[in-house]
Amino acid sequence: MSAPGKPRSLTLRILRSAPGAHVEPQWQDFAVEEAEGMTLFIALNEIRQNLDPSLQFDFVCRAGICGSCGMLIDGRPGLACRTLTKDHGATITLAPLPVFELIGDLSVNTGKWMRGTAERLETWIHRQQAPALTAVEAPMEPELAEAIYELDRCIECGCCVAGCGTLRMREDFVGAVGLNKIARFRLDPRDERSDEDFYNLIGDDTGVFGCMSLLGCHDVCPKGLPLQTQIAFLRRKMAVVGFK
Amino acid sequence: MKVAKRTFDAVIVGAGGAGLRAALQLSEAGLKTAVLTKVFPTRSHTVAAQGGVAASLGNSTEDNWHWHMYDTVKGSDWLGDQDAIEFMVKKANEVVVELEHYGMPFDRTDNGKIYQRPFGGHSQNYGQTPVSRSCAAADRTGHAMLHALYQRNVRANTQFFVEWMAMDLIRNADGDVLGVTAMEMETGEVSIFHAKATIFATGGAGRIYYSSTNAFINTGDGVGMAARAGIPLEDMEFWQFHPTGVAGAGVLITEGVRGEGGILRNAAGERFMERYAPNLKDLASRDIVSRSMVTEINEGRGCGTEKDHVLLDITHLSPETIMKRLPGIREIAIQFAGVDPIKAPIPVVPTCHYQMGGIPTNYKGQVIVPKDGNPNVPVAGFYAAGECACASVHGANRLGTNSLLDLLVFGKSAGETVVADFQSGQLTLKPLPDDAADVSLARIARLETQTNGVEVNDVRLDMQRVMQKHAGVFRFADMLKEGVTKILEVAERAKHTQIKDKSKVWNTARTEALELDNLIEVAKATMISAEARKESRGAHVRDDAIDCAETPNGRDDKNWLKHTLWYSEGNRLDYKPVNLQPMSADVEPIALAKRTY
Ligand SMILES: Cc1cc2nc3c(=O)[nH]c(=O)nc-3n(C[C@H](O)[C@H](O)[C@H](O)COP(=O)(O)OP(=O)(O)OC[C@H]3O[C@@H](n4cnc5c(N)ncnc54)[C@H](O)[C@@H]3O)c2cc1C
Ligand code: SF4
Ligand code: SF4
Ligand code: FES
């Protein structure tokens, strides 16, 4: 950390691109004076306000909960709003997350990808019959509820997708975010799908058997989801179904 | 200029909690529905809600809707409409259990029921002791709720128009609403969304203040669009300042922290809320706690070198409780305040948080306006729900967790009303006027041609400073007067905003300029309504209102027990009566009383 009263001057080296415009992406440097507690989100806003109104990046909540602001920070996927500049060197490189459709500069279309995955994996509670509305909640063990909640914390930021080696090679892989969702619904007693049903969704190379367990996903998840154990567990369960 | 036109049974503007809940009702009923949103649905600001959603399930402590109703009416300082409040608290259990059926991962009690925690202003037995009424998924309730609602909408195949910004409301000569114009943010093209029903669920406008817990996209678009189209705005002088925004950063620390046992302390380490609210103490309602904090700071008992904040202390809670019940809060405190709350207290200040007023609606979600002597006539084809609407259940001060409840109850109710009106054939597609898109096109054209104008950022900052200084936690008669003059000046300048970036594609500057038009409507409504209300009530507290037997806490029921209606045209003010009559005979009206906690 720099001494108080002597702010560092930072260089944000940003990969600029505009897909429609048919120009090659290029790096552009922006100088920003570091402030106390500065996050990349604050720095990027300063650039847009003072230096270049055309710079594109996404954010909503500024508190790590909406999942909008994923980008490659010094080459590693992370959330801009949760990244303090003081934890980085004086030059910080920023690039858009790979895999996703590029909108421009640091902005990518994670939403479209996530909706596609949601439709494909049917990530909602499946029930034959809707319970009557007057009924009270079905009881659930607090430990189970906590385990479901733990996996439900995913903010669909796409960092795991961007960090995944398989996904860079095959676009149709559901990614750690997809596998985690299946693990979440599989745990949930309110979802009546069987392991056979889940096998039909992820029991091949686009699903749990496509994963090479390199764990790029696990290391970069900003919410610290237990992706490693979940994927391993799911693979064992699905392998059992496969042998039947 | 030719403008593309799309036709739907219904168009919903907004995909936060309220918009998604309404959309679900429509999609499942088979209506052809378009949901417009500035951001991908699960990025909407509801995702940031932390503490919980209110329902008198009574899972942890005895509870019933009568107590919830009493607390809500009292919390509103009697400005809430008792019919809408009765409707909301009675529906609470149903909408929460429904959400549980959708897969919402609530925390559970040892016997497997939904976990509930205490929250400010919620009590047992008509104000006696705190009650556990807030249903929570740790401290990320909004996230869990928004994702559960979204998943259910994917199942129902709801059609979203993501990154489409609604610009203006379309009305015909009779005043009926026929849809909206909207700009595709990618291309900058304007289209018409023509529909039989239009539902606004655009959220709040906390960005009119300099320091706010709200996201940058909370620019009051729905409220601004309605105002420009001649719909009055109700009770806009009432803004909630949340007691515990992180000092300096504005990011929220949920009241659930105090629900779990957190204590506010001044520089002497004193638990000062004991002096201001002997019964509920740190869990008194938000307006009271915020004012007590500002009083402590003003009287020199603030903390830090500038003595400009107080401390929120949870160091006496076990690390396990903090990790399990408040993990997100710990993250936020570490990042934004640089303290680990397990070891040290968090510096906090009251921060603008919630808009109590909005587009006037009834409990069915219909937008209502005065017409021919009747103050509450529905506008054909127009509905609203959530923070942009004023039902009015929050009156002069909202209780924590009642907003997420409001989204669920009135989102659903607005959806049900539209479905019923649609199925009965009452909703028809009325012909569009020829000039339906002219206003929007002119706004875009002005931005394209404006020269020698003013910067959007400068105007917005001036607006925020004026609001912060002249219409904050405490209000002063002369400051409000001056504030009106100043905000009208700012509004004048906002007509000449200029953007440097004139490109069509993904032009953030243009979006921000259009948003500013909406913020300005909200700011004017707030300042002018506040200047006019010569009493203290709930979140609106003036220096010249006197606390005496006639006017308890400065509240003047004889002259001011009424809703404000502000019209953008000519900044005209009108008033309408508060509905003090509950909906059914199940409950007596809650009689007026002095508010103490
Ligand atoms: C930090 C924080 C914590 C909170 N915690 C709680 C809590 O614990 N309990 C509680 O009850 N309340 C809480 N609240 C309040 C509550 O979260 C909000 O009042 C509520 O979420 C608002 O929901 P909404 O659906 O009305 O709007 P939002 O969720 O804000 O959604 C607005 C939607 O409208 C869209 N939109 C806006 N303008 C346009 C336009 N022009 N064109 C197209 N789309 C548009 C946006 O894209 C978005 O989808 C909290 C608020 C904050 C800020
Ligand atoms: S699993 Fe983690 S990294 Fe992947 S989308 Fe969810 S929160 Fe982001
Ligand atoms: S472990 Fe699997 S999902 Fe995770 S990064 Fe590697 S291949 Fe991708
Ligand atoms: S802005 Fe919401 S996660 Fe970063």
Automatic annotation (TrEMBL), chain A:
Residues 145-172 form the 4Fe-4S ferredoxin-type domain. Binds 1 [3Fe-4S] cluster. It is an enzyme of class 1 (oxidoreductase). Part of an enzyme complex containing three subunits: a flavoprotein (frdA), an iron-sulfur protein (frdB), and diheme cytochrome b (frdC). It comes from the Bacteria. The keyword Iron-sulfur applies. GO terms for biological process: respiratory electron transport chain; tricarboxylic acid cycle. Residues 10-98 form the 2Fe-2S ferredoxin-type domain. This is Fumarate reductase iron-sulfur subunit. Its EC number is 1.3.5.1. One of its GO terms (molecular function) is succinate dehydrogenase (quinone) activity. Belongs to the succinate dehydrogenase/fumarate reductase iron-sulfur protein family. Pfam families: Fer2_3, Fer4_8. It comes from Zoogloea ramigera. Its cofactor is [3Fe-4S] cluster; [4Fe-4S] cluster; [2Fe-2S] cluster. Keywords: 2Fe-2S, 3Fe-4S, 4Fe-4S, Iron, Iron-sulfur, Metal-binding, Oxidoreductase, Tricarboxylic acid cycle. It catalyses: a menaquinone + succinate = a menaquinol + fumarate.
TrEMBL record, chain B:
PROSITE patterns: FRD_SDH_FAD_BINDING. Keywords: Cell inner membrane, Cell membrane, Electron transport, FAD, Flavoprotein, Membrane, Oxidoreductase, Transport, Tricarboxylic acid cycle. Residues 9-404 form the FAD-dependent oxidoreductase 2 FAD-binding domain. The active site is at R286. Its main location: membrane. Its cofactor is FAD. It is found in: Cell inner membrane. It catalyses: a quinone + succinate = fumarate + a quinol. It is an enzyme of class 1 (oxidoreductase). The keyword Cell inner membrane applies. One of its GO terms (cellular component) is plasma membrane. It is a peripheral membrane protein. Flavinylated by SdhE, about 5% flavinylation occurs in the absence of SdhE. It comes from the Bacteria. GO terms for biological process: anaerobic respiration; electron transport chain; tricarboxylic acid cycle. The modification Tele-8alpha-FAD histidine is found at H45. FAD binds at residues 14-19, 37-52, 221, 387, 403-404. Pathway: Carbohydrate metabolism; tricarboxylic acid cycle; fumarate from succinate (bacterial route): step 1/1. It holds the Pfam family FAD_binding_2. Its EC number is 1.3.5.1. Residues 460-597 form the Fumarate reductase/succinate dehydrogenase flavoprotein-like C-terminal domain. This is Succinate dehydrogenase flavoprotein subunit. It comes from Zoogloea ramigera.
